């Protein structure tokens, strides 16, 4: 089984509206994908460090999303809450291919293999 | 890890004790194993803010200072709901009510105070409480739901704040005060009289020079009996006559106790290793009752415990502000001139402003401000610094602007700020010291907004703003940016400037506005983006394409987000009138989609709560009803009563009128939500006089009411006028709403807007029939462009996709075989910047 990062294909750029977001589940983890104004795609764990608000539902301003529940601001690159709040969530590396296919790198060794593989190993 | 750490126990999980621990953790994070016992079942919270919680301005969650994670992160053992009942100073152990015991090397007592309950007959009845903690606050909120008449005994700071809160909760409130003047411990006579007048205008009643003799009633309080034989009906009695240091435990445990636990300048009690801090402590004869001095004590104690040399605590001068009443009152230092002192005062009855300064030997020793208190913090700093104000008295009295005080005056005030010790608290609400602010400035903060953002200084009551600005000038020097406050941190432009510029230059997108008006934050924030989106839509109804990415979640997904990420769905039920068929359909949909909760809303319709996001389009499709817009800054409900259709008192068809108005205005976006109601007679069962636009039928016509609000601050409507026909009702309502749409600030409801621009002004505009018709036509044009959002989403896959999860991911490679994947176009596409 994989011991380090593995890469998964998660749809196309056109699946996400500009400044919008989509959710997806991998191995029981919910991930939010965001499309920034310059078409960069960033991925984070879909859980606000404050009280678990779904960040995918928040407003995107630059590389920052405002949590829909209490307006904490989370930096989508670092996963850190911006001042004056404190907290951090997991981020995932992404890659957008020329044809717009989005690839996502899952970081973990321990829990990162399982279902993604069995569900969908088509290559 | 090592067992070398000393054991520190804190009794009392309140403001002073935990503040001391916070300070200690900064100075010596690894020196102690810390255990905290708190009698209340809550983590450390901001007691000061209870007044705001009661008045509806803050929630219980918002006032928590340190949540449970904080204790965990700092490896503090916390025992909640565990009052310490015994201290054994021989074996150095404390014992809690619930059986837990703990050993200590150092022990801090920070047990605070108790509300003083007058020892009069009946004081133990149900419905008699103090105002001290969350429990009291909840009891008052609870009582306001079932009872009507409240009596607050005590016309001091606490009593008036309690009374204001109870007014907001809709109770009829009388304040009983033994003295002839309110807040006599902080205010002199003229200020006190001005305060009373203002509070009376707000609906508060007063019984002065009254001594309460007994609480009447059987099990629950029913009223009060006064010494002069008179009585007052009351089913809630709040005693706010003072506090008593909570010293029972100390007394029992062999500590020296007078009014409070006696401590020296280092907060030491008579027992070795035992300290006291906060309201329970008595220092040089004084037990304080405000946080600023308690924080100073805490700073001294923390240094002691950390082994940092410290001079000792020398006592404090205190200042107070009345919060939450909408009246600005400030009092600091000595406000009644002692022998040999001079008092200078200034009073303007028309503007409602009063100011008094007390000067002794050329030094300012006290001040009272009423009506305009922005100079409070600066004056207070002068009182504390003891600097000479010789020759500047008049200047100070006759109102120097705040920045003249903090930057003008030659070296005087800069010197004062400079000499202020680093741990002196500048922002009392958030406990931010001068040191914290200077550190933030050193760390790169160079505007008030930034300092507010990273320290929370001046983020609550704002009273310390001039001081923070002064510190900024002093320590940031040329780097300091004084920013004119715009609609948010991204711009310095005001609402009116922005709207004028959009019109003048014909700007058509949010992005364009931000570019042209030189936003300092390229993509704006969650405050300006929705505002701009609204202004653009209001100004260009036909051309502007609404930007859903600049709308809040609720308005983007056309449902209300819940705390668990599900949504709630409220279909439109015009005028609250439904039918068996419609009800059956709603019931079927609820069953089909396993909706966890179906509830009648306060707006006379049904709410399906807990709907999964991916089910929303399906639910809407199955309901086949228009959106109720229960989520938007738009028309919400039009409540109606039965009216003349069935009711024996009804004079007009209220339901018919309500349905007509709701059909006329549905889908109307607005600066804030808009609620209407129509009642069939002056009994007003539809509560039209607390709505944005309320219609009350009278014989021969309709009364039109505007600017009501039943939310955070209850405001009854103002009477706009009287009309005879149904068409006129619709015309006036249209004109009023459109005028509001065109002129109010985003997020400003009609109640504050009407107060801001004045009813007379609105009447003047609307009394011109041509103008009314023009406004009505503009609103009609706007509404004609709108479509039902639910129907639109249901039928458009491109919109509908946003409700679905992306399909399950497909694994394409593991690291070693990165290049080996086949089925996608070149991976040499743009490589994304990796996060640090
Ligand atoms: C569903 C409902 C409570 C209920 O179960 O009855 C409700 C639910 C919410 N109200 Fe309300 N309000 C509801 C009737 C009211 C009423 C009563 C009324 O409309 O007759 C009021 C007082 C009347 C008024 O507005 O003047 C009311 C005054 C508020 C306020 C205070 C507004 C103010 O200007 O002071 C807020 C906070 C806000 O808007 O910022 C609020 C905010 C909210 C929010 C949207 C909080 C939020 O942002 O998530 C709640 C959404 C709950 C949810 O998750 O669905 N709700 N809310 C009611 C929906 C009525 C409807 O059919 O549309
Ligand atoms: C409604 C209200 C408004 C106020 N407004 C202001 C204001 O505007 N400005 C201002 O400066 N001050 C204000 N105050 C006063 C301020 O809140 C207090 O001065 C401050 O909270 C005192 O801090 P403390 O730590 O000494 O006591 P507290 O904060 O009361 O903490 C003491 C804690 O110890 C616990 N305790 C007591 N005995 C035991 C025991 N045996 N074992 C375990 N735990 C125990 C108590 O339950 C309590 O939680 C206000 C107070 C109230 C109630
Ligand atoms: S429904 Fe309204 S009153 Fe009830 S908890 Fe939500 S916002 Fe508060
Ligand atoms: S849950 Fe995200 S801000 Fe509160």
UniProtKB/TrEMBL annotation, chain A:
Transmembrane segments: none annotated. InterPro entries: Rieske-like_NirD (IPR012748), Rieske_2Fe-2S (IPR017941), Rieske_2Fe-2S_sf (IPR036922). NCBIfam families: nirD_assim_sml. It comes from the Bacteria. Keywords: 2Fe-2S, Iron, Iron-sulfur, Metal-binding, Nitrate assimilation, Oxidoreductase. This is Nitrite reductase NAD(P)H small subunit. Gene3D superfamilies: Rieske [2Fe-2S] iron-sulphur domain. Residues 8-103 form the Rieske domain. The lineage of its organism: Bacteria, Bacillati, Bacillota, Bacilli, Bacillales. The gene is nasE. It holds the Pfam family Rieske.
UniProtKB/TrEMBL annotation, chain B:
Residues 7-283 form the FAD/NAD(P)-binding domain. Pathway: Nitrogen metabolism; nitrate reduction (assimilation). The keyword Flavoprotein applies. Residues 562-624 form the Nitrite/Sulfite reductase ferredoxin-like domain. InterPro entries: BFD-like_2Fe2S-bd_dom (IPR007419), BFD-like_2Fe2S-bd_dom_sf (IPR041854), FAD/NAD-bd_sf (IPR036188), FAD/NAD-binding_dom (IPR023753), FAD/NAD-linked_Rdtase_dimer_sf (IPR016156), NasD-like (IPR052034), NiRdtase/SiRdtase_haem-b_fer (IPR005117), Nit/Sulf_reduc_fer-like_dom_sf (IPR036136). Its cofactor is [4Fe-4S] cluster; siroheme; FAD; [2Fe-2S] cluster. Residues 632-771 form the Nitrite/sulphite reductase 4Fe-4S domain. Keywords: 2Fe-2S, 4Fe-4S, FAD, Flavoprotein, Heme, Iron, Iron-sulfur, Metal-binding, Nitrate assimilation, Oxidoreductase. Residues 319-386 form the NADH-rubredoxin oxidoreductase C-terminal domain. The keyword Isomerase does not apply. Residues 811-824 have a biased composition (Polar residues). Residues 425-473, 487-536 form the BFD-like [2Fe-2S]-binding domain. Residues 809-836 are annotated as: Disordered. Belongs to the nitrite and sulfite reductase 4Fe-4S domain family. This is Nitrite reductase [NAD(P)H].
């Amino acid at each position: 089984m994989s011991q380090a990062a593995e890469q998964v294909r998660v749809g196309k750029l056109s699946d996400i509206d500009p400044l919008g977001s989509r959710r997806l589940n991998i191995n029981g983890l919910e991930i939010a994908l965001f499309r920034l104004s310059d078409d960069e795609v960033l991925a984070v764990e879909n859980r606000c460090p404050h009280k678990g608000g779904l960040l995918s539902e928040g407003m995107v301003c630059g590389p920052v999303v405002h949590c829909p529940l209490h307006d904490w601001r989370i930096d989508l690159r670092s996963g850190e809450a911006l001042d004056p709040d404190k907290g951090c969530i997991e981020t995932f590396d992404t890659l957008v291919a020329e044809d717009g296919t989005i690839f996502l790198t899952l970081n973990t060794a321990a829990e990162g293999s399982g279902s993604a593989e069995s569900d969908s190993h088509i290559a | 890890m090592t067992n070398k750490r000393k054991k520190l126990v804190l009794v009392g999980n309140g403001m002073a004790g935990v503040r001391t621990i916070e300070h200690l953790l900064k100075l010596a994070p690894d020196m102690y194993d810390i255990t905290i016992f708190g009698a209340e079942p809550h983590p450390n919270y901001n007691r000061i803010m209870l007044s705001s919680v009661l008045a509806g301005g803050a929630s219980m969650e918002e006032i928590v200072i340190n949540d449970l994670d904080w204790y965990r992160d700092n490896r503090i053992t916390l025992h909640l709901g565990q009052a310490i009942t015994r201290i054994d100073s021989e074996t150095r152990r404390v014992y809690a009510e619930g059986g837990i015991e703990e050993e200590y090397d150092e022990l801090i007592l920070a047990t605070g105070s108790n509300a003083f309950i007058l020892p009069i007959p009946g004081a133990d009845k149900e419905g008699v409480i103090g105002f001290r903690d969350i429990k009291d606050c909840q009891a008052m909120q609870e009582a306001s739901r079932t009872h009507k008449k409240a009596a607050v005994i005590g016309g001091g700071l606490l009593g008036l704040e309690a009374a204001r809160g109870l007014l907001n909760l809709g109770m009829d409130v009388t304040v009983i005060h033994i003295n002839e003047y309110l807040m006599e411990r902080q205010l002199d006579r003229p200020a006190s009289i001005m305060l009373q007048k203002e509070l009376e205008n707000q609906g508060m009643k007063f019984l002065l020079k009254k001594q309460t003799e007994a609480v009447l009633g059987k099990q629950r309080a029913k009223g009060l009996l006064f010494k002069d034989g008179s009585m007052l009906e009351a089913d809630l009695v709040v005693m706010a006559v003072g506090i008593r240091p909570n010293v029972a435990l100390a007394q029992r445990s062999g500590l020296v106790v007078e009014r409070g636990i006696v401590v020296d300048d280092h907060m030491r009690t008579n027992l070795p290793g035992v300290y006291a801090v906060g309201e329970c402590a008595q220092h040089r004869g004084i037990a304080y009752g405000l946080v600023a001095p308690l924080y100073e004590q805490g700073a001294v104690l923390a240094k002691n415990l950390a082994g940092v040399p410290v001079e000792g605590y020398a006592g404090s001068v205190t200042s107070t502000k009345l919060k939450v009443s909408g009246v600005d009152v400030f009092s600091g230092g000595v406000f009644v001139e002692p022998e040999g002192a001079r008092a200078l005062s200034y009073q303007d009855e028309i503007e409602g402003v009063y100011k008094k300064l007390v000067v002794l030997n050329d030094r300012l020793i006290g001040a009272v401000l009423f009506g305009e208190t922005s100079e409070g913090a600066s004056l207070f700093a002068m009182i504390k610094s003891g600097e000479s104000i010789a020759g500047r008295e008049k200047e100070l009295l006759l109102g120097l602007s705040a920045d003249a005080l903090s930057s003008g005056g030659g070296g005087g005030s800069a010197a004062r700020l400079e000499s202020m010790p680093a741990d002196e608290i500048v922002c009392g609400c958030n406990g931010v010291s001068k040191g914290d602010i200077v550190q933030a400035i050193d760390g790169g903060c160079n505007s008030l907004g930034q300092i507010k953002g990273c320290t929370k200084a001046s983020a609550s009551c704002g009273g310390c703003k001039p001081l923070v600005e002064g510190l900024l000038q002093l320590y940031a020097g040329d780097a300091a940016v004084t920013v004119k406050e715009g609609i948010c941190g991204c711009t310095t432009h005001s609402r009116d400037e922005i709207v004028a510029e959009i019109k003048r230059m014909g700007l058509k997108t949010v992005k364009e506005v931000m570019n042209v008006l030189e936003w300092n934050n390229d993509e704006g924030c969650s405050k300006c983006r929705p505002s701009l989106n609204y202004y653009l839509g209001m100004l260009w109804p036909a051309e502007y394409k609404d930007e859903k990415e600049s709308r809040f979640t609720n308005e983007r997904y056309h449902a209300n987000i819940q705390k668990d990420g599900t949504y709630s769905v409220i279909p439109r039920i015009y005028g609250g009138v439904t039918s068996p068929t419609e009800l059956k359909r709603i019931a079927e949909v609820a069953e089909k989609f396993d909706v966890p909760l179906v509830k009648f809303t306060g707006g006379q319709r049904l709410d399906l709560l807990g709907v999964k996001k991916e089910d929303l389009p399906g639910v809407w499709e199955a309901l086949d009803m228009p959106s109720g817009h229960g989520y938007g800054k738009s028309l919400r409900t039009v409540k109606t009563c039965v009216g003349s259709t069935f009711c024996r008192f009804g004079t007009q068809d209220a339901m018919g009128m309500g349905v007509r108005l709701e059909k006329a205005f549905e889908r109307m976006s607005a600066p804030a939500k808009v609620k209407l109601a129509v009642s069939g007679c002056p009994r007003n069962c539809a509560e039209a006089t607390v709505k944005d636009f309320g219609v009350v039928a009278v014989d021969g016509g309709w009364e039109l009411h505007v600017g009501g609000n039943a939310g955070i601050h209850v405001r009854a409507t103002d009477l706009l006028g009287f009309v005879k026909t149904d068409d006129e009702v619709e015309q006036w309502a249209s004109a009023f709403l459109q005028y509001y749409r065109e002129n109010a600030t985003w997020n400003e409801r009609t109640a504050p807007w009407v107060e801001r621009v004045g009813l007379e002004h609105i009447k003047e505009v609307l009394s011109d029939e041509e103008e009314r018709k023009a406004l009505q036509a503009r609103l009609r044009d706007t509404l004609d462009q709108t479509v039902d959002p639910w129907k639109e989403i249901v039928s458009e896959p491109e919109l509908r996709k946003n409700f679905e999860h992306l399909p399950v991911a497909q694994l394409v490679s593991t690291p070693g075989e990165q290049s080996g994947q086949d089925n996608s176009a070149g991976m040499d596409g743009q490589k994304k910047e990796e996060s640090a």
